[in-house]
Amino acid sequence: MSKTIAIIGLGLIGGSMAMALKGFEDFEVLGVDRDSATLEFAAAHKVADRLTDDAEAAIADADVVYLCLHPGAIVDFLKAHRGDFKPGSLVTDVCGIKTAVVDAAAVLPDEVDFIGGHPMAGKETSGIFHADGDLFRGAHYILTPRPGHRPEHLDLLRRIAAYIGCRDVVETTTQKHDAIIAYTSQVMHIMAVAVCDDPDLFECRGFEGGSFRDCTRVAALDVPLWTELFSMNASALTKVIRNLEDNLRAYRQVLERGDTAALARKLAWSADRKRHMDLE
Amino acid sequence: MSKTIAIIGLGLIGGSMAMALKGFEDFEVLGVDRDSATLEFAAAHKVADRLTDDAEAAIADADVVYLCLHPGAIVDFLKAHRGDFKPGSLVTDVCGIKTAVVDAAAVLPDEVDFIGGHPMAGKETSGIFHADGDLFRGAHYILTPRPGHRPEHLDLLRRIAAYIGCRDVVETTTQKHDAIIAYTSQVMHIMAVAVCDDPDLFECRGFEGGSFRDCTRVAALDVPLWTELFSMNASALTKVIRNLEDNLRAYRQVLERGDTAALARKLAWSADRKRHMDLE
Fold first, then answer.
1. Number of domains chain A is built from
2. Residues A168, A181: one domain?
3. Which A positions 111-140 lie with beta carbon below 8 A of chain B?
4. Rounded to an integer, what distance in angstroms lies between the CA atom of residue B77 and that of residue B92?
5. What ipTM was assigned to the predicted interfaces of this complex?
6. pTM value?
7. Which of B207, B238, B271 sits opposite A220 (nearest CB)?
8. Are A185 and A82 contained in the same domain?
9. What's the domain range around A67?
């Protein structure tokens, strides 16, 4: 008998996850959304094996539930539906912050297993219209299992990560995830928007190279989503922003002093750290 | 009778320019470098039509001279060789700052035409070993003609820009170039190195996504080159760094206040500016 993965929320990530999961083992992929235009698009593009707008019925029946909502909506959904999940099922999410979401999962009964997840992929667009079954190829898939999780569910998520094309699975705690993600992802987005606040922005057409296009790419972000992601991780994020301000100021001050030798030393130190990171 | 373009300095940009220029109209491409390993590599890979280590003889004979040295070396070269260029020739450069270089060209005699140039392409590697004839494809080619330049030379540079695959030619003043480039290019590099100064850098393997890879890509920079580029444009660059510090601080403060509505308004404003930039 086939099992069911229910994807709650067919936005960019949920829609992409549904597409990427099609054909995974003996699971049927059930797409769930409240928005009729989203469901119509999903039906026309065969985003999932089956579609419904009835989340309650879907999670009552599903063996695996992927919560692909904004973080605040996940917290609300867990609270509202805590008694509706199938006993023995796995509930997971794809959200860019983990502490707030995993803490909220404490409302679930013991027989429902929650393992927080964050496949590190995205686009500077949103909605199912931009969904892409290849979105997760080459991405890290971060998992934050709670004490007492069921090991077979962690195995299942590892097989899913491999199936959708992720490069690896990284296990960590929710606190470490949120602290590091403030640095590797959130502050990159803050920098991108801060760069676009420069009064010279609209003067720069014709003068931009690859570094400008790369850095500002993510500035056209989904505002409600990122408002929640930043706000719900504010203490880690403000610490990283402060570090960055300090590091920028140090470069500015050595330039203002006209100390070329010190500038060269600083650049050599930073460039060497980057080379040691060895990201492809 | 064929004419000659001499490329002085076969580094990443000079080597790429020589390769890109091969076959341009009836010009012979003459590659010039003092380093024997560079000349050997250039000969083995047919980087230019002809090679020499004799810059003085090369510029005495060349109709077009491309100075592809670091900015300080260009200033020194112009001073040392001011009387050696062929009368009626065009001298240009490919340097990322323009005021210091074009000012230095004032030492040239009236019968030698100097037009500053900046094809906005690069890599986070250096040396002829990484040269690539396709490096300039899709790049903006910025030109800063001086009053009294010869229009046929500007036309020639426009035909070269098209031949090597640049998307367009942008004419501007040296001052405007340097002010805008401080923003669109130099501060992107300062941000990339400043991000790599964060104490958490080496914790972040496994947690990085596209935005982190994109933003820090240029941090592994050529230290002597960028020390000069930053130092020789310090007043414009420090102004842009200060703006960025201010814009980051504004985001940090709204996060520290916990003012979610103000954060959403700020993000909407910045993301909207980015969307209006409409870079592909």
1. 2
2. no
3. 120-122, 139-140
4. 12
5. 0.91
6. 0.90
7. B271
8. no
9. 3-172
